[in-house]
Amino acid sequence: GGQYPSGSNSRPQLQLTRALNQANSITPLNALGAVDLINGKVAMIGIGASNPRTEFASFQSYCDTFQCLNKKLEVVNVCKGGIGIQKMNYDTAAYWIKANDTLVAHSLTSLQVQIVWIEQEHTQSTNTIFPNAPQQLIADYKKLLQIILIKYPNVKMAYINSRAYAGYTDNSTGAGLRAPRDYYNSWAVKWLIENQINNVAGYEYAGANANIPFIDWATNSWANGNIPKQDGLFWDCVNDFGITDGLHLSPNGEMKVGKRLFGYFSMDTTAKVWFIDATCKAITTHLGPKDIRVDNMLIYPNPVSDKLIISYKGSFGYKIYNSFGMIIVDGQHHNENSLIDVTSFEKGIYLIRTNGEINLVKTIIIN
Questions:
Q1: For residues 122 and 140, is the Cβ–Cβ distance under 8 A?
Q2: Quick check: 305 and 341 in contact, CB under 8 A?
Q3: Please, are residues 250 and 240 in contact by the beta-carbon 8 Å criterion?
């Protein structure tokens, strides 16, 4: 069906224009919600239950090592296990008290929240009839989005994530979390966003009739079990899920979602506007005057598939960055040879940068 109307997975021009307008309006705010370019913050929160909580935590871990993260951005996880959409889509829900406490603990207020990431499901629904089941979930989502706009009136962007595969789930989980509702969840997100694109009454995000925030896709985490999607995503029962119920993700599964989220927010046209520090120069190939000691250093083999060797008589620090600009190795070279195990790295292009006694930037290909 595609993520957008007419079976497309690319944003329609109208959606792109609207999204960029919203993204460009994001600016640091103080505790009272007033613009403060010096001391203000841009708060991004994650909303959801148990799987979303660990997925968003994985995303946060990637943010923590990203050298080019917007220095004004604060990423806060307010997801809470066991809280389905039906337990948070009304104004007096206890969930929102806990969410506010979490913001306060990070020295933030609700008026500084401008970006929300959401992954949700009606965990107690027994409806598995298509298209009625996703249509009911849309109604739940609309209520939730209305509450979000009340609780966080300065929200500019609400990115919605679809669920991961639930086909390995046993009957110990809530009925609403079992297959095929995982698959229907994506349809609910798709149609929810289409309603706003098509200017359906009650889905306004701007002007006097604003009812919900501006909404768009985050990532689509559903894949049909171990059958890879076009983007390569698949879900392995043994490696990607915990041993308890076949629903909650293992650390490997959490990392899959977290990495996809980080890749999306750091590279998407509408997200990197507020996600990335525009002045960041953490990774550069500018070496300045030639250092003749570089000629005495060997970094090999290249391409490499198992052990990368640094050969040099001396000492210096080094960092290896992946294609997102994240530091994945932070080490020290001493004496003659350092061996770096790259067998766990994904195939692709990396940068190694040395500092201290000798300075060098070099591209490494891992195959």
A1: yes
A2: no
A3: yes
Q: Which of 242-246, 263-267, 278-282 has the lowest mean pLDDT?
A: 278-282
- Cα 173 to the center of its chain, rounded Å: 25
Could you give the CA distance from residue 190 to residue 345 in angstroms, rounded to a whole number? Answer: 33
Cβ proximity of 160 and 187 under 8 Å: no
**156 and 23 Cβ atoms separated by less than 8 Å:** yes
Q: Which two tokens stand for residue 84?
A: 């389905």
The confidence score (pLDDT) of residue 296 equals 66
Q: 326 is written with which tokens?
A: 């994240």
Give CA separation, 15 vs 5, 197, 199, in Å: 11, 7, 11
Query: What sign does the CA torsion over 63, 164, 264, 13 have?
Result: negative
pTM of structure: 0.80
Given this model, what pLDDT does residue 224 score? 96
Query: How distant, in Å, are the alpha carbons of 38, 223, 298, 352, 359 from that of 289?
Result: 35, 50, 19, 19, 11
pLDDT at 39: 97
Q: Which three-class secondary structure state does DSSP give residue 296?
A: helix
**What is the per-residue pLDDT across 336-358, written as a single tens digit (0 to 9) for each?**
789 999 998 888 778 898 887 66
Spatial separation of the C-alpha atoms in residues 11 and 58, rounded to whole Å: 26
